[in-house]
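This part of the workshop introduces the protein records we will be handling. A record pairs a protein's sequence with a compact description of its fold. Comparing a sequence with its tokens is the quickest way to learn the format. To make this concrete, we reproduce a full record directly below:
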Amino acid sequence: MNTDLALQVNDLTVRYGTVPAIEAVSFEVRRGAITTIVGSNGAGKSTIMKALAGLLKPVHGHVALYGDDVTGSEPDTLVRKGLVLVPEGRRLFKSMTVGENLDLGAYQRTDTAEIRRDLERVLELFPPLRTKFRTLSGRLSGGQQQMVAVARAMMARPRLLLLDEPTIGLAPSMVDVIADIIQTISREGVDVLLVEQNAEIALEISAQAYILEHGEIVLRGASGQLAGSPEVQRAYLGI
């Protein structure tokens, strides 16, 4: 068992019926760092995240979370083990307030005093949410809704946070805010797996990167090295 790894994925294969979505994908997330999977729309990024979170069952492959085999585990089991997903599109309960959405993030927890402390911490991390605490989440801007989605996940006290396209549809200034928050979360001891179409920001804030095309990993390496690759620059960075 490699104690340096938060997540180890080997030969993960997922199909929609008979149609392959991802094929024999292998990658690692190291502890204490941000790892990213970069790919264009339809490359299979969200499929990987859903499979890791227990929302899709793989037809082949193995997933180890901090050394424990969690292949095919149910979503609630994975949350208890510390793996928490921030889904693409935020998936908030828009008819509920910000505070109510945050409460739902801690629904499996019973440590009331610690929940209160974690709530205060996420409100420090996301200052706009303090003033919007009793506002219906559906009335927030896109950037503020993304903050609620990440804050809700943090209320589950994750060890490994999965972020599925957290900057999609956001203004450039808000992209920078979300990127700063992700880095802060990482510095505070939460391991992070980020999937993104926005290769520029993903490669900037991550340590290790994988390039996904048509359901397969085609490149892997240190993020800085991949950012300097002519192939990545041409295909993903517009250089």
Observations:
- The mean pLDDT is 91.
- The beta strands are 5-16, 19-30, 34-38, 60-65, 68-69, 83-86, 160-164, 191-196, 208-213, 216-222.
- The chain has ten helices and ten strands.
- The longest strand covers residues 5-16.
